Amino acid sequence: MTSNPDDDAPDLYGPQTQRVLDLLFRIQNLRPEEARALVAARKRVKKADWEAARRGIWPLIRHIPRYTDTLSARAYVLLSSPGEEGIPAAGPPASAALAALIFRDMIGDSFTQAHYDTYTAPWRRALSPVHPDDPPLVDGRRWVPRRRA
């Protein structure tokens, strides 16, 4: 891996800017087997859950300038390396994880924790947490320790 040229970028994407740039860098350096694992993990997410997450994040994407089509396109371009089988198909789940990370600080009414977990589930299952504070996922749901009586 090479160093991330955007390491000293201003806060283009809100409070998660550095983590967003780090995730973009990680996307750029996906190995084919990681891309295949990401695609397989995306197939495990229910379509209805994915659509609900899309509806939850869409108002933020449309009205808040920190997420742009340019950023989303950049994720897709990074994943469209010719000759690397499976990497282009990793674009949708990687782009979803990126969008969720950008708006992580805005989890609340329209974009819920469940939406965030849905959009980041493929990445978290296949590769690693998207954010250091992300709890582990078990079958696509947040793992919550049970309290002992």
Give the N-terminus to C-terminus distance in angstroms: 48 Å
Proportion in β-strands: under 5%
Alpha carbon gyration radius: 15 Å
Domain module count: 1
| Major β-sheet strand ordering | 1-2
Low-confidence stretches: none
Instruction: Specify the structural class.
Output: mainly alpha
Structure commentary:
The termini are far apart. The mean pLDDT is 76. The protein is mainly α. It has a two-stranded antiparallel ribbon. It contains six helices and two strands, in the order ααααααββ. Helix 1 runs antiparallel to helix 5 and helix 2 packs across helix 6. The protein is globular and about 35 Å long. 52% of the residues lie in helices and 3% in strands. The protein has one domain.
Q: What is this structure, in a nutshell?
A:
It contains 6 helices and 2 strands, in the order H-H-H-H-H-H-E-E. The chain has 149 residues and is mainly alpha-helical.
Defining key terms:
149 residues; mainly alpha; two-stranded antiparallel sheet; 6 helices; globular
List the helices and strands and how they pair.
Blueprint: H1 17-28, H2 32-43, H3 47-63, H4 69-78, H5 91-102, H6 113-126, E1 137-138, E2 141-142
Antiparallel strand pairs: 1-2
Helix pairs in contact: 1-5, 2-6, 3-6, 4-5, 5-6
